[in-house]
Structures are given as C-alpha cells and as structure tokens.
Design a protein that fits this description.
Elements: E1 20-26, E2 33-42, E3 45-56, E4 62-63, E5 72-73, E6 75-84, E7 95-97, E8 102-105, E9 116-118, E10 127-129, E11 140-144, E12 158-161, E13 171-173, H1 175-184, E14 192-197
Parallel strand pairs: 1-14, 4-5, 6-7, 12-13
Antiparallel strand pairs: 1-2, 2-3, 6-11, 6-14, 8-9, 8-10, 11-12
Amino acid sequence: MLPFAAPVAAEPPSSAQTSQWIVVGVPAANSTTGTLTAFQRVGQQWTVVLGPTKAMVGELGIGAPADGVYRTPEGTFGFDQAFGREPNPGTKMPYFQATKQDWWDEDASSPTYNTHVRSATSPSAITENLYDSGPVYDYAVNMVVNPQRIPGKVSGIFLHVTNGSPTWGCVAIGRDEMRSILTWLDPAAAPRITVGVGSPSLVPIGS
C-alpha cells in the first residue's frame, strides 16, 4: 500500500507497470518542507535508490491543483519532459537544453496552455521563461499533473533544483540529488511520483 493516503490520478498505474517510484511526504498539508525518497523495484522487491532527502514544496503546502495558487498538487503523477539550462546529464527521459527561447505557457486562454513552447518571443500573456528563471531549472522534469490541459487546473509543475525557499507549486530538491534523479529516470520503467501527507520512508507499493 502507499505510505500515506494521497489521492491518485484518474488512471493510476499498477505496480506491474511501474518500477520507479518517487514519494514526497510532508508532515502536514500546510507544510512547505518535507522529504523525497526514490524507490526502484527489482523483481517483487522495492529498494531505496535515493533519499530520504529534503524537499521543498509550495508556499501554501500541498493540496488541490489550481492556477495562480502556490500549492503543490497532492496525488500520484507521471513524468514526461525533462529539461535544463545545463546539458543532458545522461537521462533517458526526453530532454532539451533550455535557452532564452524556451517557455512554459501558463495562460489558461492560450492554445498552448500547459505546454513547452520554443519561440523567440513569449507565446502568451502568462509564461515562464525556462532559462531566465535561473539555476532552479539547471535540471528539471515535468510532472504530468494536468495532461488534459483543463484551464485553471494548473500548469508547469516540475521537479527541479531548490533555491532553499518554498516553491510556487513545484517540488524542489538539492542540485546533486536532482541530477541523480534525472540520470536514474527511465521512461521504460513508467516512473511515477506521489505527493502526500506522511512518511515517504516506506515502500510505496506492497510486495
């Protein structure tokens, strides 16, 4: 079973599908600091490959996702696109090196809402430049929180490098740890991340 009662995605993966699982636990829903632990399954056994390590979450803690609310979404999500201001550290995830022409569109009225856009100019009224945002995006990977791109249901929730402060809704860990996570992640393992209240030090799926 999961180490805490966190809501899951509409179609949560089965343990048979997933062999990489990241668990982020915070002591209370309004906490801004918790821990992250990464697990790898070999056969029927789950083992810790990283952590527990300090993780920063949203300024308002964790909970239901919403645009403009600095709260980390609670639940279980996949990963799709990795990126960073630095060259690919060796991840098997799809990866691009961010430049000043890389944006994440956060405008709910835009046709490219909640997507990566490469453009010489901002693609909409509300965007985040993935290079100008600084060292927090030296290494990052997108958490698939709103794959249907429903307006208002949150855009651009990443696992990325921490600057030591609470985030705008992302999960942030140390630079070395983030680099290690990226080199470990493998899309063939259907990696998932669970964010919830409780301890992430337990095996995420029952053997």
